[in-house]
Amino acid sequence: MSSPALSAYRALLRSARLAFAQDTHVLSAAVSETRAKFEANRAAPADEASEQIKNALEIAVFLRQNLVQGRLDEESGKYQLRIHDEIERGDNDTIKLNPTKRPTTNLAGGTKCCSSP
């Protein structure tokens, strides 16, 4: 495994450990899937490998900054969220905008107005 691939692999494992710290079943599955994907692409051509390494690093950032796990509290029936220090927190400025001017993102990645179909 090349040095950039190894760095991406380690970044994914560190991010998975952080994101799934209290969920051993999901953490184990994430580690297994990461290893399987890297092993399957071990002999990928250089241009394809660099794209996959870039993708792996983006996934690592997503896991580290955007994934929040919730656990059901049996007594209260409410979910407790595990928000760690690296979770990205927005300022919610768009919530203060007039609802007809609030931007949303469609599945194609473009921005549209809420009143648009």
Automatic annotation (TrEMBL):
Classification via InterPro entries: Complex1_LYR_dom, Complex1_LYR_LYRM7, MZM1/LYRM7
Assembly mode: Interacts with RIP1.
Chain intervals with Polar residues compositional bias: 95-117
Gene Ontology biological process terms from the UniProt entry: mitochondrial respiratory chain complex III assembly
UniProt KW keywords: Chaperone, Mitochondrion, Transit peptide
Subcellular location, principal: mitochondrion
Molecular functions (GO terms): protein folding chaperone
Record family assignment: Belongs to the complex I LYR family. MZM1 subfamily.
Keyword Amino-acid biosynthesis: no
Species whose genome carries this gene: Sphaerosporella brunnea
Keyword Aminoacyl-tRNA synthetase attached: no
Domain called Complex 1 LYR protein: residue spans: 5-60
Identification of the protein by name: Mitochondrial zinc maintenance protein 1, mitochondrial
Function according to Swiss-Prot or TrEMBL: Assembly factor required for Rieske Fe-S protein RIP1 incorporation into the cytochrome b-c1 (CIII) complex. Functions as a chaperone, binding to this subunit within the mitochondrial matrix and stabilizing it prior to its translocation and insertion into the late CIII dimeric intermediate within the mitochondrial inner membrane. Modulates the mitochondrial matrix zinc pool.
Region feature (Disordered): 92-117
GO cellular component, one term: mitochondrial matrix
Organism lineage: Eukaryota, Fungi, Dikarya, Ascomycota, Pezizomycotina
Subcellular location: Mitochondrion matrix
